[in-house]
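Hi,

I'm pasting everything inline rather than attaching a file, because the server keeps stripping attachments. The sequence lines come first, and each chain or strand is labelled.
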Amino acid sequence: MGGPAGNTHRLLTVVKSGSIQDVKASPGDKVHVWPHLLAAEFTAALFITAFTLVFSLFINAPLLELANHNETPNPSKAPWYFLGLQELLTMFDPMIAGVTIPGVALILLAFAPYIDRNTSLRPEDRKFAISIQTIHLMFWAVLVIIGSFFRGQGFNFTYPWDTGLHGIFHL
Amino acid sequence: MANTLESPKAKPPLPQRLQNAQQQAADWMQDSQFWTSVFRPGSIFRKGYTDSPRNRSYVIMNSVLYHLHPVKVKRHAVKVSYTLCLGGLSFFLFILLTITGIFLMFFYRPTDTAAWADIESLHTQVAFGLLVRNMHRWAAHLMVITVFLHMARVFYHGAYKAPREFNWVVGVMLLQLTLLLAFTGYLLPWDQLALWAVTVGTNMMGFTPVFGEQVRFVLLGGQQIGAETLLRWYVLHVLMLPFVIVIFMAIHFWRVRKDGGISGPL
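And the predicted assembly:
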């Protein structure tokens, strides 16, 4: 039964690759970590070291007088990253300012991925999430700035130019 | 030419001979069993390293330091404009803080009678003491900022969405641990700034319902800040919190890879 040239097999059809082989991973657009990523990381590390070093050469860390329980400085301020909380304490009951607001903010922040059910990454689809987070971050940033620069004696409102750089940064 | 033919054993000039000797020594060292056992294939210190795709892969796979990374990443993942390097900078600042912190530990005793004087003499008696303390202080502030900005960056890219939900939770923990590390370090200079900033901070803690007072008592080692507080916060600052944060960082970095690398472009 052979063909014209004595062949015993014939090519009958062309099939799509998916029907006979299972392609699991597509190569995608990838680059080698070395040197592309490591070089960038190394540069960033050098930059931040240089920045910290130069900054430290010119500006000294504060060291005031020895701790004294009998002499309360005026104003007494928490570290700047907690000044938002201290600012809230001037406005609300301690239970609300010190516990409820930061507690709720932290829980909502931690559970954001389980609250936000929207799967899109595109900013135009995430207007609500982006707005609410921007308001949230700005809320803390503004409070920290007010607490750091606009609070003087007795934690009363003042202007930074009245306090002066030395008063603010304890230089 | 004629000269060379007549005396084939003429010595090359001295610089040439030195260079040859250097090359021979280098070859001998790189061929030794010791050298090849230290530097695994793909190390740039191994003999015959060439810039090939195979060696680029080996560099990552065969290095304890670099194998945190995959061999290859998506092209957009190396774009600085996407990540702004903020997570990496936070990690690097942590390393910088560890190194400068270990240096400071050599000169510091966490007691109410010695602490302040130790820092005072660190400024004046120790070579580079003031500079290293400055770096520790400013790097700490900077790390709080970079961790905060990293959190904002990840949020705005929607990178917390599936499958990376849990890594976001770990990240929020890391933010809190960073704040705690910064806050516990704040007390250690034992000056007026430290004492009263921590007094204000820990008074807020007391407002927590049910267990607030108890937590405050355990953290201060008493009703008010004193020698016990200094020792407790020192141990928290140099040992316990770094120990915990390293575990969380390990999970954080491991999950970045397990969840499919950093999130895709917008």
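The mean pLDDT of chain B is 92.

If the labels don't parse on your end, tell me and I'll reformat.
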